[in-house]
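User: Predict the structure for this protein chain, please.
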Amino acid sequence: MDDPSPSAPQQGPLLDFEAGQALERRDRKHAGPGGEPDCPRCEARMVRCVEQHRAPRSDDSPFRVRLACPATDCGAWTAYNW
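Assistant: Here is the predicted structure, written as structure tokens:
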């Protein structure tokens, strides 16, 4: 990620595949404000950031969603195409 927004937390470790998939499923069901999932590592409410891809493929959305834990001792994150 190039220049995260000022409100975006610092990134820690990338969540494993299964945890990332579970967060994506939950986030897609509750995509509105206030529907952010809890971090599977520390249970803090995650922060949702919508980012634009630099060169998206023609069959995908040009946007990606990044879920990041704001806890300074955690910082776990995942991202998925919207």
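The mean pLDDT is 84.
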